[in-house]
Amino acid sequence: MRQSDHEVPTRLERAAGDLIGLAADPPEDFALRVLRRVGIQREQYDTYVRLETPAGGLFVAAGPDAVTGAALDSAGLTATAFEERHRVRTHRSAIPATKPFPGVVTALRTGRARRLPIDLSGLTTAERAVLEAVRTIPPGQLRPVGWIAREAEVPATAVVGALARNPVAVLIPSHRVTHDGGAPCDADLVPGAGDALRAAEGVDLDREVELRRGGVVFLGSDTTRIYCHPTCAHARRIVPRHQVPFRTAREAGRAGYRACKSCRPVTV
Amino acid sequence: MDEKAEQQLTELLAADLDGGFTELVRVHGRSVYTFLLRVSGSRTEADDLGQDAFLRAYTALQGYDPERRRELKPRAWLLTIAANVWRNHVRTCTRRPALTGVPVEEAAGSWTDHRPGPEERAALSDDRRRLVSALLKLPEHQRMAVVLRHVMGMSYAEVAEVQGCPVGTAKAQVSRGLRSLRQLLDPEVPVLEEVTT
């Protein structure tokens, strides 16, 4: 038995090493049931779930009345890391739950999250105005930074900073904001996530790139003499032979076109 | 969990009981559940006893003044409660008529369905399953010590605090536990006693 002489400590250690792997996750609603049973007020904590989106899993945290935070896990974010970040930002505990906040699943499926109650109380007035403006962009459409600045009544320089601090990823659709040249901002998203979200909403990415290369910012129709953002629902139904591209709003105005009343391009 | 986070937690507990308790459940729920699962060997029981342990913890916290809550070492304290809940549970179960005639020591080791349930069996690899069942064959105090030290990765000082014994005793329990564990896993290889002279 000389062999086992050497093996004893290593085997013992191996048994000890394997034991670490026996740490187990409790059932998903374990913590929530504890809090309910103890009788902690619902206002004291947020609950969160992980939902699937085209850009990977999305953690969505919500209080009793509104969504308070969301983050994509595509950047390697674990549930624990999300809880910690939520704690630091909102000073509220995020408890895992099995049921998402009412309306969140529908909002993610349709891309229409405009009416979803979202709590932005931790932000400055300007940041809140920017994010509220971003929320009004319809699914499948893109708006430039200048448009957001006008809607939110803030200087254009403040927009990208506010987008980068978006606490509710995807549900506040910052992936629908582009720079004035047409290139996507994606200030708060990891590379690739923005494209995945836009493609899932039916934005034609190749067409966007082509328009951008030609310097086209607006599309007009020579039958109606109205010009729009190229992703506006009205612009998308102009047939190719009636499309009139414009580089600036001034150019369109000089050609006798008026701005679309749905997508409201910046006219200055 | 590092010291700074631990301190933040106790500060919060001292300032706001409900908020602090919520945070306590969020941060340490997994530890309490893992401990109870590995000691009892049953998911349903770990769940029930975990709920009980936290309820007792909350009741106790209500009676503490803020100063005492600030002094708390949350994880060791919670696991002490969980260990007590488990011991009480074992004792209660031994009193049930179905088990009359079985000596207490044996009942303690054989009470619950120690076999992992179907859910767990599917998730576990063969090696892991052997380890889990070997763990459940250890005597009560050794099993607790081994789980605390090697599954949860606590220091011997913390283990001793939870077990309510001196540090040396905790070390001995862990070491004996590991040795019997090894013997259960490989019965052919004899355990060599360490020669100290």
Notable features of this structure?
heterodimer; A: 268 residues; alpha/beta; DNA Methylphosphotriester Repair Domain; 4-stranded mixed β-sheet; 38% helix; elongated; disordered N terminus; B: 197 residues; mainly alpha; Rna Polymerase Sigma Factor, Chain: A; Arc Repressor Mutant, subunit A; 2 domains; 11 helices; MethylDNA_cys_MeTrfase_DNA-bd (chain A); methyltransferase activity (chain A); Ada_DNA_repair_Zn-bd (chain A); activator (chain A); DNA binding (chain A)
What's the topology here?
The complex is a heterodimer of chains A (268) and B (197).
Chain A: H1 2-20, H2 30-38, E1 45-53, E2 56-62, E3 67-72, H3 79-90, E4 93-96, H4 104-110, H5 125-135, E5 143-144, H6 145-152, H7 157-164, E6 177-178, H8 193-200, H9 205-213, E7 218-221, E8 226-228, H10 233-236, E9 243-246, H11 249-254, E10 258-259
Parallel strand pairs in A: 1-4, 5-6, 8-10
Antiparallel strand pairs in A: 1-2, 2-3, 7-8, 7-9
Chain B: H1 3-15, H2 17-40, H3 43-63, H4 66-71, H5 74-94, H6 104-110, H7 118-123, H8 126-137, H9 140-151, H10 156-163, H11 167-185
